[in-house]
TrEMBL record:
A single GO BP: glucose metabolic process
GO cellular component, one term: cytosol
EC number: 2.7.1.-
Reactions this protein catalyses: a D-hexose + ATP = a D-hexose 6-phosphate + ADP + H(+); D-fructose + ATP = D-fructose 6-phosphate + ADP + H(+); D-glucose + ATP = D-glucose 6-phosphate + ADP + H(+)
Pathway in which this enzyme or protein is active: Carbohydrate metabolism; hexose metabolism; Carbohydrate degradation; glycolysis; D-glyceraldehyde 3-phosphate and glycerone phosphate from D-glucose: step 1/4
Taxonomy, superkingdom: Eukaryota
GO molecular function, one term: fructokinase activity
Short name of any one Pfam family annotated for the protein: Hexokinase_2
Database matches in InterPro entries: ATPase_NBD, Hexokinase, Hexokinase_C, Hexokinase_N
Entry-linked SUPFAM superfamilies: Actin-like ATPase domain
Enzyme class: transferase
Similarity section: Belongs to the hexokinase family.
The protein, known as: Phosphotransferase
Organism encoding this protein: Paragonimus heterotremus
Length: 315
């Protein structure tokens, strides 16, 4: 990112593939396309969705310091002190805070997460368009965790731990177990398996569902959600500890926060265990983050509001 309205694409993620765009100014390309259609639209800013959710929340909550998205992919941004910014970006600091877009979906690309990757993670990674890239994202995001749950269920069935050893035909297809099924199953309260049975019967045509099958499938789904929350909670705790704020609001958005009944609580528990007891934090779900955040960013950069912007943006 070279300015508020100029950013070059380094690489694709989330199974997108269009090599001719890599290295290009995405804002400029979009503006050219709009001009070619004679649309009177001017691109004033290009920003990540995490920056949008942070800006939207920070406009109303001065304690907001982190923006977190967990959906098909994951990313996070946070406020960093300008004094910590080194060359060549120090010129942007001016003693203020900067929003740092971490792009933490790519954490682990250097091999730092190898010890935490299971054989299922490696199988999922190998089947993507970008093997060896976006490792952290592939371990926690909704685009991948449904397939992780499917692989676990299929292996359990192959070992006769589920479905009396008979694998449902629909479960043999890659990506047939959508993350929404995982959320539905995880929503079942203890000792009640209504959603689990509905998913298995209606989506995978299992007519005979033993209680042990429902228990096992829900256990797997809960384990997948819990691992995602634990990994993301550890990452959030690192940022809170780095910021050194005693009180911080984490602006959040994405499918995990909107559709999972257990993920937010597990995330909070994990963060709490990994930060000093004198620190406090809260999660705040932000609606229309892109629209509101974009408006706040453009207003701040154009100084359209009667105050000195408290931050600049470093992508």
């Amino acid at each position: 990112m070279f300015s508020i309205s100029k950013a070059h694409l380094i690489s694709w993620a989330k199974e997108f593939g269009c090599d001719s765009v890599i290295g290009q100014d995405v804002c400029g390309l979009l503006q050219q396309a709009l001009n070619a259609l004679s649309l009177k639209v001017k691109i004033s800013a290009v920003f990540n969705d995490t920056v949008g959710v942070l800006a939207a929340c920070a406009a109303k909550d001065p304690e907001c310091g982190i923006g977190l998205i967990v959906s098909a992919g994951t990313n996070c941004c946070y406020f960093e002190r300008g004094s910590r910014i080194q060359k060549p970006f120090a010129k942007f600091a001016c003693g203020q805070e900067l929003i740092i877009n971490t792009e933490w979906g790519g954490f682990g690309d250097s091999g730092t997460l190898q010890q935490f990757m299971t054989k299922y993670d490696k199988e999922i990674d190998a089947a993507t368009l970008t093997p060896g890239k976006q490792i952290f994202e592939k371990m926690v995001a909704t685009l991948y965790i449904g397939e992780l749950a499917r692989l676990l269920i299929v292996e359990a069935a192959s070992k006769k731990l589920l479905f009396n050893g008979e694998i449902p035909e629909k479960l043999t297809h890659v990506n047939s177990f959508a993350s929404q099924f995982l959320f539905d199953i995880d929503r079942d309260p203890p000792h009640i398996y209504v959603s689990t049975e509905v998913v298995l019967r209606e989506r995978f045509k299992l007519n005979l569902i033993r209680r042990s099958d429902a228990v096992g499938v829900r256990y797997i789904c809960r384990a997948v959600v819990t691992r995602s929350a634990n990994l993301l909670g550890a990452a959030c705790a690192c940022l809170i500890n780095r910021m050194g704020r005693r009180r911080v609001t984490i602006a959040v958005d994405g499918a995990f926060f909107r559709f999972s009944s257990t993920f937010p609580a597990i995330l909070v528990e994990t963060i709490t265990q990994l930060i000093p007891y004198t620190y406090t934090f809260k999660l705040k779900l932000v609606d229309d983050a892109t629209g509101k955040g974009g408006a706040a960013i453009i207003a701040a950069c154009k100084k359209a509001i009667p105050m000195q912007p408290r931050f600049t943006i470093l992508g």
